[in-house]
Inverse folding.
């Protein structure tokens, strides 16, 4: 339960359905920041302390927890939690129903033939319903993992937490509060420093941009294992004065309102919440055409897309958005309307609530236990 997309969704579901569910959170490894916050609010959080490799003893422990806590529905986020929940069903938690949600995929997306066969003929039988947060992930689950009838259930955001683009006066005031230079334009990336996010491509593309537009800055929000590597690369490329590392922030909407372009250069992505937040805040987007990004952004309509690891094309897209204010404004307006129409958080939560009711056999209005 660190601060990341799937984990934030879990906390949002709990808050929204607090009168409908009696939630419990099961973490395979560690409690994490969000887990600690929810635990402090009285939500039971159980850390199963998984051992390295396939921990078969965990299944027995997990089954015991599910039975003793009378858990009716487990919402397993990602494959590994589903794997251990299915094993727990085999080890005694037979009455617990399982809802599986796939959020993202690895790149390259390699699944062994053994896992595929076991999923299709054994484990998938324990998945009472399967959803994926974008069509890309759903198709991968069916084609590579052997699941059947995967429902596409898009993630969403709370649009009222993200205002329309501020006017010039209010936006300048916000930029001043954030310490942005008045005569510079800002590209921002909000993502953890991890190989899948491929900050290297963004930094190399930005070097091409800043060589032509010296008064351009790159803001990198987040932390992670690759941060030191990217900081070294920035120094090696002699652009340290133009790149700012802001760490973990909670004022995401303010940052997106203040900056001029949002970029995400992942080599693999499912349904990026930060991308949706950028679109909602009217911050023009230049992202890689991977996974669910192309399902959220139509190139030339809601933003600009580039192939993964294509430094030249990304630098061209960034330059276009920075130089063409009319185009950027049109794309940003279209993007917010897209979020308003198709990617609202409450729509996703209402569907999850319906699935919880269906799987538990409870009628709307009654309360049940799940995680």
């Amino acid at each position: 339960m660190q601060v990341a997309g799937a984990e934030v969704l879990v906390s949002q579901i709990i808050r929204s359905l607090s009168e409908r569910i009696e939630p419990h959170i099961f973490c395979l490894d560690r409690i994490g920041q969000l887990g600690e916050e929810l635990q402090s609010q009285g939500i039971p959080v159980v850390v199963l302390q998984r051992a390295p490799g396939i921990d078969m003893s965990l299944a027995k422990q997990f089954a015991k927890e599910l039975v003793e806590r009378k858990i009716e529905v487990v919402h397993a986020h990602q494959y590994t939690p589903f794997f251990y929940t299915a094993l727990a069903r085999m080890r005694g938690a037979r009455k617990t129903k399982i809802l599986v949600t796939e959020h993202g995929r690895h790149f390259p997306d390699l699944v062994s033939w053994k896992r595929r066969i076991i999923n299709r003929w054994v484990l998938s039988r324990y998945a009472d319903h399967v959803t994926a947060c974008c069509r890309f992930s759903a198709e991968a689950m069916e084609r590579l993992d052997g699941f059947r009838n995967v429902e596409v259930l898009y993630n969403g955001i709370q649009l009222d937490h993200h205002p329309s683009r501020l006017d010039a006066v209010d936006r300048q005031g916000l930029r001043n509060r954030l310490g942005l230079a008045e005569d510079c334009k800002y590209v921002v990336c909000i993502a953890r420093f991890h190989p899948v996010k491929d900050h290297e491509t963004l930094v190399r593309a930005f070097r091409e941009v800043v060589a032509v537009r010296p008064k351009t800055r790159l803001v990198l929000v987040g932390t992670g294992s690759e941060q030191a590597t990217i900081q070294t690369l920035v120094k090696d490329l002699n652009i340290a004065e133009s790149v700012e590392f802001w760490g973990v922030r909670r004022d995401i909407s303010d940052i997106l309102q203040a900056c001029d372009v949002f970029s995400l250069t992942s080599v693999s992505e499912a349904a990026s919440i930060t991308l949706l937040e950028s679109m909602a805040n009217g911050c023009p987007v230049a992202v890689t055409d991977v996974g669910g990004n192309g399902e959220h952004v139509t190139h030339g309509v809601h933003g600009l897309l580039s192939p993964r690891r294509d430094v030249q094309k990304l630098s061209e897209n960034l330059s276009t958005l920075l130089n063409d204010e009319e185009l950027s404004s049109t794309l940003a307006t279209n993007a917010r309307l897209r979020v308003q129409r198709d990617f609202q958080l409450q729509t996703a939560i209402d569907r999850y609530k319906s699935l919880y009711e269906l799987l538990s056999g409870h009628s709307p209005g009654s309360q049940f236990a799940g995680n």
